[in-house]
Amino acid sequence: MKNTKELLAIRIKQLRKSRGYTQEKLAELIGRDTKHISKLEIAGSYPSIETLERIASVLGVEIKEFFNFDGLKDANYVRDEFKKLLKYSDEKHLQLLYKIHNDIINM
User: Fold this and answer.
1) I need a surface site. Which of 18, 69, 73, 107 has the fewest CB within 10 A?
2) Could you give the angle at which helices 23-30 and 34-41 cross, rounded to 10 degrees?
3) What residue segments make up the domains of the chain, in order of their start?
4) CATH of domain 4-71
5) Low pLDDT (below 70) residues in the chain
6) What is the largest CA-CA distance in the chain?
7) CB neighbours of 24 closer than 8 A, spacing ≥ 6?
8) DSSP readout, 24-70?
9) pTM for the predicted model, two decimal places
């Protein structure tokens, strides 16, 4: 499992990209150097609260969104959770999971 600094780095990058900003554009908008944004996104350093506030403002999110790591679980964690789900599901739920799986595959 990744540590908080790594998860925060991934989340900043994810939010930046979802708004269509390059590192250069975000750096310009918050008054920082591009290297600073790059370092944040590779977990080379923690951002200051001031930097987080600026990034949040530019991206139009609340600071708490930087710490919403729910969608950032690593593959091994997700596999383990699915194994548990399959192991403890009754037949009705297994059928439903199978249907969901097929629907996703056939999208």
Assistant:
1) 107
2) 120
3) 4-71, 73-105
4) 1.10.260.40
5) 1, 72-75, 77
6) 57
7) 34
8) HHHHHHHT--HHHHHHHHTTSSPPPHHHHHHHHHHHT--GGGGG--G
9) 0.67
Please give the structure tokens belonging to residue 13.
Answer: 């990058």
Q: What is the pLDDT of residue 73?
A: 64
Is the separation of the CB atoms in 58 and 50 below 8 Å?
Answer: no
**Chain length of the chain:** 107
| Confidence (pLDDT) at 74 | 64
Helices vs. strands in the chain: H and E counts, helices first: 6, 0
Structure tokens at 18: 């979802």
For 98, other C-beta atoms within 10 Å of its C-beta total 10
